[in-house]
Amino acid sequence: MTAAVNHVREVAAVDGRLPDEMLRATRPYVVRGLAAGWPLVRAGRESAAGAEAYVRGFYRDATVNAMLGPPQIGGRFFYNDAITGFNFHNVRARLDQVLDELATHRARPDPGAIYVGSTSIDGALPGLRAENDVDLGGRDALASIWIGNRTVVATHYDLPDNLAVVAVGERRFTLFPPDQLKNLYVGPLDFNPAGQAISLVDVRNPDLERFPRYAEAMAHAEVAEMGPGDALFIPSMWWHHVEALSAFNVLVNYWWRQSPDYMDTPTNALMLAILTMRELPPEQRRAWQEIFRHYIFEPDAEHLAHLPENARYALAPLDDDGARVLRGQLLRRINR
Given this model, what pLDDT does residue 336 score? Predict the structure, then answer.
């Protein structure tokens, strides 16, 4: 029996834009047709060749990182069987050469996988955002473009909030809330295809004998089937699996954080915790768990009331100067 599919909720834009409360949401949502008026979207609705020609109009000799995989991988960029390497290779190439290769592969019955991921729009295609952009209420978002054929990006999470806009082709997103980590069978933290830890489960054909807890993750999954002009908001830390379903696909996404720029990624703290705490005796780990609860996860102003405000040092509210001091102290400790 096929499990029932939970679809990502759909919401409407307000006067053609997303108000601030929608851009601070903690659950995903789809906005149909948010970018329907983009010239890139209109060109893609006409034909893949038309969309490609439109993109080429902004090309100015930029080189990009591309992922290339043989037909045998079925578009899924992943590890080799032993998890000692990958089933694809990375190249640095001119964007127009990548577009040439994509056009060649569109005519093949069994094409290889070609993927240009997370590339700065302003760097690679200056001027494109002047005609194809989303109003994010003044947020200083990183705008990136993703171009490829039928490819699959394994389930992963991102620290920033994410607005993903399908410009050309069709995509399927499968999302999992952060509390499903234990059911996703995540691979190595520090050895992965694109910088983020990924689930080892193939969402399209899950092996429940090898990954039995994934059945629980499936029960909590939310799916978004998206076409040109549709937008998906993915909150920070939500796991997502991405399938590009057309022979030529273009996606534009915007990343931004709700925290100040001086805050480092928590992944650094996780890796340091592995280095400093994971192998401690159980009682010591429980003691550190309480310390983290007290100072980080459940802080209470009452716990600091015994300290004058000018004597709280690292426990004072963090700002740019305080972050600089803490970073310097941490580096000195690590480098001893």
Answer: 81
